[in-house]
Amino acid sequence: MSGNSIGQLFRLTTAGESHGPALVGILDGVPPGIELSEDDFIFDMDRRKPGVNRFTTQRSEDDRVKILSGVFEGKTTGTSIALLVENTDQRSKDYSDIADKYRPGHADFTYDKKYGIRDYRGGGRSSARETAIRVAAGVIAKKVLKEKYGTEITGFVSQIGDIKANYDLNHLDKDFINSNDFYTCDKEVVEKFDELLRKIKKEHDSIGAKVTIVADNVPVGLGEPVFDRIDADIAHAMMGINAVKGVEIGAGFKSVEQRGSEHRDLITKQGFLSNNAGGILGGITTSQQILVNIALKPTSSIQIPGRTINKNYEEVEIVTKGRHDPCVGIRAVPIAEAMLALVLVDHLMRDHAQNRLLAKYHSH
Amino acid sequence: MSGNSIGQLFRLTTAGESHGPALVGILDGVPPGIELSEDDFIFDMDRRKPGVNRFTTQRSEDDRVKILSGVFEGKTTGTSIALLVENTDQRSKDYSDIADKYRPGHADFTYDKKYGIRDYRGGGRSSARETAIRVAAGVIAKKVLKEKYGTEITGFVSQIGDIKANYDLNHLDKDFINSNDFYTCDKEVVEKFDELLRKIKKEHDSIGAKVTIVADNVPVGLGEPVFDRIDADIAHAMMGINAVKGVEIGAGFKSVEQRGSEHRDLITKQGFLSNNAGGILGGITTSQQILVNIALKPTSSIQIPGRTINKNYEEVEIVTKGRHDPCVGIRAVPIAEAMLALVLVDHLMRDHAQNRLLAKYHSH
Amino acid sequence: MSGNSIGQLFRLTTAGESHGPALVGILDGVPPGIELSEDDFIFDMDRRKPGVNRFTTQRSEDDRVKILSGVFEGKTTGTSIALLVENTDQRSKDYSDIADKYRPGHADFTYDKKYGIRDYRGGGRSSARETAIRVAAGVIAKKVLKEKYGTEITGFVSQIGDIKANYDLNHLDKDFINSNDFYTCDKEVVEKFDELLRKIKKEHDSIGAKVTIVADNVPVGLGEPVFDRIDADIAHAMMGINAVKGVEIGAGFKSVEQRGSEHRDLITKQGFLSNNAGGILGGITTSQQILVNIALKPTSSIQIPGRTINKNYEEVEIVTKGRHDPCVGIRAVPIAEAMLALVLVDHLMRDHAQNRLLAKYHSH
Amino acid sequence: MSGNSIGQLFRLTTAGESHGPALVGILDGVPPGIELSEDDFIFDMDRRKPGVNRFTTQRSEDDRVKILSGVFEGKTTGTSIALLVENTDQRSKDYSDIADKYRPGHADFTYDKKYGIRDYRGGGRSSARETAIRVAAGVIAKKVLKEKYGTEITGFVSQIGDIKANYDLNHLDKDFINSNDFYTCDKEVVEKFDELLRKIKKEHDSIGAKVTIVADNVPVGLGEPVFDRIDADIAHAMMGINAVKGVEIGAGFKSVEQRGSEHRDLITKQGFLSNNAGGILGGITTSQQILVNIALKPTSSIQIPGRTINKNYEEVEIVTKGRHDPCVGIRAVPIAEAMLALVLVDHLMRDHAQNRLLAKYHSH
């Protein structure tokens, strides 16, 4: 397969470029009977949408999700759901001068080498514009998780540059997270983030970020042995988000310096005494909170000139024009939530298929 | 699928438990005409094998790989290759006292909850014993890469606890790496690692590690847009190794604190000026060195008593008996190399299928 | 997966119901650099379109295919291609009286039992309307086959009821086939088909048909051993067309009465002396003409009252209103051609991935 | 994928050649808690085994199935099950003279063209020997079906040459079927089959056959819309059996001559009044008996000399030596049963994954 699908049973397939007529997604495997309307998508689409807060790009797409199939009289029918998001604000002209130049840090070079042809308008298929459909699909996944299992997914910005948010993972304030410009969880860092990003912007530069995503009330037993451990599939889903360069589960890279006596989460009648595992043992959920951290690189779309080459291997200078985020990590919050939700529902279905089939054989 | 396969086109499917009669793998999609003998597996199987150096467990399996199909008169035929590794040193008795207890940090609890039944002997399917077959399959993948593209994969231990190796990724000494007890690349840390592990062992504890894996001479253009970016598939493959809690590509979590002007790798006629991208842009290889770091947790199999529960949710104390690695990261080196090789060959084939089909349409 | 995708590498995923806003398809794996415009779809879409000849249903959709992605400046880019066909002539009213009744011979009963909810307007997802997208995707597949390999696919109606066309598979007149009302290959049967269908229509009944599909200039070596033999994948693709009840390759059911000495196709320097194999040996193409026959049942949408039950398991009588084909087999011709084309391209890519990878190892 | 796997969730992957050391299968997705022992395989392995009755080849392999994983203390654990069948009676010498000649009607020519290398001993991977593993996997599938749903699968020989068995599909005598030399259902034809096959054998020729397979007590709702209709997947599974040239569901090719008023199965409170559909509507099971017919060609391994070419494209004569079935259709009975069972369990799991997930949404 050519990489445009994710999930085995709850499966999203996408198409669409940054500056084509529309983005399209087909979501296959959605259970029947779930109430779904086009309004359900607004909240998350707005969180991902450029121009909503001050520090994200100002392309002002409406990003309205249209349902083209799979829903009848307000409920899912169990057949494939087609989602469409039109590109209404494309401004192709902004990009025409880079048709032959390879922007450093972008996929221009690699797409050209791979395919021998490239839609150079705004990155084409490699643009983060594509993630709009992921967020839409994630809305449906979150609905399934919440309605059936009470599972809740919460993402937030936990670090920008060297400024780190403080937080207690058991007491996250979702309302605060979704109402501040940085989708962060810590009131104390809002001003510092603001100052940093103003500075970065003034310097025409950009900065990296760390996003933390947790899932609470996760059913026990999700994940498949060996290759499709749920942490492996989470890593795949997260590393597949534009700009992500690292993924941690639970203690993550801190584990390198830990002792076994410190890392292993002891178990009591009341549950686990710690969560270095991040809610996953042997690749299977324990029912503890799932904890994921991802590193997002600073966008390469900056207005500081840089050296590169063009199609003819001639050295040229390049400056990215147009409006761009100084910190793409902020908009990644709903995307990362969506990806985690897609993985969880897929694994719910995979677990269900095998282990609930012969319920009489074992009491679960 | 139940997670026992990896790869779309170059596809490994495995079976087998720690204490069953044998481990089995079927490798599908191997190109025909490659010379292959059972001796080809010895070097890598030895690197993974417990008991080869002083700090890995002393189970002394022979770990001889048998080829049951797909090779005729010394060459691959293009049909599926079955690999078999017998379990000759199982000592089931060591494990019988943990049949009902859930070892903290292990998959005992989650397998029981998922399946309602569990092969408790040495972790059964969740044991790292299973990775023997991955290493065997990796040997074939590395052969394809080396013979056709000159691609070389090198893994080494870059950190144990808080002791960090120093290295120049462009001048790694493979002979040294494979001849020291820690598969590390830095002569200076060998003694420090040795001291640390003696200490850890004396304290009946364990310690985490970081493993670094690089691939040189990688063809440009490997990786699929959107979900199956090659970094996403590498993250999946690496996080699917037992004990791995984090994966980084290129600058990894350092990207969080980087500026765009620092992170983006500028391009000249002579090539890229830096490698924060880790050889991957937009999920597609640039032909630069691929750079991956993984975090391995300290094994939970330690001889320090710990609190846990049993099947009846009663609190009990547990001490892991038997012989175990104080640092499982060391043995992960050939496994991580194998996983990277499997991903690369799979993507070579995926790229080939689509982009070499109509060669006349574009000059590559 | 929920059955809405076909192909491993050249992969079509579809969505859309008979009376929803649109049909959508995402075609993944299309090689880059192929010229493609929306006009390319007209010829085949017209052949499938109801109302084009006298004996197919008179819904007059325009069936214009819109390309939403994957094509840039008139050429495919290698990224996923989204195709959209709007439903412009839905007339939902025709169907509202069957919301609770299960039409015999239709999928009403099974969809209700499977999903507990059903889009009853015109069959919803089970309607043959869905095949419009398959035909569109088939156009792209045929283009790849023709341009690269000279492979040509020809389908025709070879039997309606007990009236059989005569033909010489090596001398089919494509112009005649595509210009007569029945897409048949035999001038002699046109009048007989016409008479039969007038009679059937007058009696408010319907009749079955046989469609024959051949592929010429097929590359040797397509098909994978054991489960995904190309004949197995052709059978899957053909049996997945609405109303198909049987599939034959080569001599088909005639093989039951043949002797081995008669069936085996002897080989000379000039090639095979016969084609009982239908161009496939051991599931792999020989380069001879591929020969497929399919049986299409008479549509159950007839105006003769019939017994059935409703949702409450009460016995009721039902008469299908609306406009329907007396012989659905006729419209199946371009659909069957499309399915064969999709299978062939997928197998070209699969073969390419494995066997062309290491070209230096064997001269092909 | 290279065709060595079948099923999405209940997935069999196989390896092994006719004259290699062993056949291997990995069956993934088996539910946990099912009792399974190596003795369970004997009955079906014996039915497939050559030499059991007078008219099948006399290679006397023991065909004992070994379980290498996935079963613990007599029960399946939910992890992948590896099955091994050794090749104990290979007699490679019989085949050495055909190393360079392409036997007409066999896969010799196509394997050589596809891979450029070929295990010529007894057909290698293309040999029907491979089906031994399918039969073994089918035993597990049938067990799941029977124990959980009471589903029973029955196959029998319904025609050899032009001699047709008579039968009533609702009153098949399984004991008789499995105790006569031809696995046929009709006492009246046994002697005729016997005479015919003696004659064929004396003439050193072979003959085709038709096999009929039915499934009773099938749950309603199995099958996925559009491409993976259960009839499409059955067609794929059946056409993937060596020597099969045609597949029919329900009325099959008879549908071509039927009227809609005759074909559609009317429904009453007591159920369907006929079964032209073969238990499947819109690709989804109705709970009626599933009815499948397959055509098996006469084997090309006959002792009548035939014309062919060798590797150098020189014309040569060939005579198949060794022991071969005059009618391979007979041994296909347990294989066809196994394939149907594998498809049904896979679809049970697929249906379960999606439609039982949110049971509260609809009452099923």
Automatic annotation (TrEMBL), chains A, B, C, D:
Binding positions for FMN per the UniProt entry: 125-127, 242-243, 282, 297-301, 323
GO terms for cellular component: cytosol
This enzyme's EC code(s): 4.2.3.5
Binding-site residues, NADP(+): 48, 54
Tagged with keyword Lyase: yes
Cofactors named for this entry: FMNH2
Keywords: Amino-acid biosynthesis, Aromatic amino acid biosynthesis, FAD, Flavoprotein, FMN, Lyase, NADP
GO molecular function, one term: chorismate synthase activity
Free-text cofactor note: Reduced FMN (FMNH(2)).
GO biological process: amino acid biosynthetic process; aromatic amino acid family biosynthetic process; chorismate biosynthetic process
Enzyme class: lyase
Pfam families in the cross-refs: Chorismate_synt
Catalytic activity, reaction form: 5-O-(1-carboxyvinyl)-3-phosphoshikimate = chorismate + phosphate
Pathway membership: Metabolic intermediate biosynthesis; chorismate biosynthesis; chorismate from D-erythrose 4-phosphate and phosphoenolpyruvate: step 7/7
Keyword Amino-acid biosynthesis on entry: yes
Function: This reaction introduces a second double bond into the aromatic ring system.
Similarity remark: Belongs to the chorismate synthase family.
Subunit architecture: Homotetramer.
PANTHER family: CHORISMATE SYNTHASE
The name this protein goes by in its record: Chorismate synthase
Organism encoding this protein: Psittacicella hinzii
